[in-house]
Amino acid sequence: MLSYVKKVVLVVSLAVASVSPAMAQQIEAPSGDVVLTVSGALSMTNDGDQLLLDLDMLMALPATTFETSTIWTEGVHQFKGVSLADFAASVGAEAGLFLATAINDYTVEIPFSDAVTGGPIIAYLMDGEAMSVRDKGPLWVIYPYDSNSLYRSEVVYSRSIWQLDRVEIVQ
């Protein structure tokens, strides 16, 4: 786990970057295994023109938790992760779309308009536990399907990519 000081530095760095997206800022490289590589139109980097994030770095961002059922699991589950809105702000994305890619190279387009308060999250926990690759992890884009009927459509289901490992921000 990141130390308290490292978490504060990361959160402050991400906040500063979201205020000034035109200027790319370098942050500390991840100390753990990289779970998400972010590229494209972003203002925060730590590996050339991309941002590499480990699980601790994602967990240092503001967390959102909700309960919902899915068409891929039985019953209602609790999901915790960073909202797509907070994620976009933390990397300085303001418009366009997210090209989200899974470990098997499956790619979906998620419009920036989905990055709203009360919208989808990049989940890293299901029912309080990390998700294995076998269980659609380590990252899964989850919408609060039960809270809004608009989230129960084939289009939204197709955006609910699991085994997420890359995001390109395209403007």
TrEMBL record:
Protein name: Oxidoreductase
Signal peptide: 1-24
Taxonomic source organism: Yoonia algicola
Keywords in alphabetical order: Signal
